[in-house]
Amino acid sequence: MRTSRTARAGQYLALLAYLVFLAFPFLWLISTAFKPPRELGSLHPTWIPENPTLANFRQAFDEQPLLDAALNSLIAALGAALIAVLLATPMAYVMARHRTRLARAATGWVVVSQAFPLVLVIIPLFLVLKNLRLIDSMPGLIMVYVVWALPFALWMLVGYVRAVPPELEEAAAVDGAGRLRTLVSVTAPLLAPGIVATAMFAFVTAWNEFFFALVLLKTPEKQTLPVVLTHFIGAEGVADLGPLAAAAFLATLPSLVVFALIQRRITGGMLAGAVKN
């Protein structure tokens, strides 16, 4: 009993340390965003700003087109998430229900493809988009985001499809439901948490992506928010720390809002009690 309590206490302490490790950069970012220039240059920085100010936020919006960049990021992220889910869902169902050698090979390729570095694929992607005349365009960027997010989205959805008991589909078939009716009325509602989680992954990945947007978008009016954030760093590498922290804080809010809105949906356990022995 003592060993069990000690082990559980150690687990909680490890979890707490991990949460502190994750929260530290974000909390320091918030603190920096509200500090005046005098406190930013202090040799003894404090967690809580002594004289909090919104000047950094005003300066950030005055110096860079943050709203336009955020709109570009939103269009790219929503488009990539929607297309990736629409493509990955039927593909994942086929791979999960028909476990052939080809399906296993495709699953292995999906996992291996995630190990490819961005530098390895950027040149072929650039040449393909150049031939399609999609360089410096939002459709071209969305296409790249879909290609990059699709393997992992497919891998996620395969696991969710396999968690849906095939007995439910067999029972619907016995009751006279066709294949399409079974997929729409039985399987799709049970896959809703997985589809939402996959869409969230694709959205957050595209929202935070920097490298592809930097290489493929040249027109300033089309640049996404992560690229615009680099404009707060001067030619000599000196960062305008206050406005940069304020803009970076605003850039993280959509991801936090997405997690907060769909957290219950992801962890709701919609399969609980679906099959009874």
From TrEMBL:
Indicate what this protein is called per its UniProt record: Carbohydrate ABC transporter permease
Q: Which residues form the ABC transmembrane type-1 domain?
A: 70-262
Its signal peptide is none
Question: What organism is listed for this UniProt entry?
Answer: Streptomyces coerulescens
How does this protein lie in the membrane?
Answer: Multi-pass membrane protein
Q: Where in the cell is it found?
A: Cell membrane
Transmembrane annotation, as ranges: 12-34, 74-96, 108-129, 141-161, 182-207, 244-262
Answer whether the UniProt record assigns the keyword Secreted to this protein. no
Alphabetical list of SUPFAM superfamilies matching this protein? MetI-like (SSF161098)
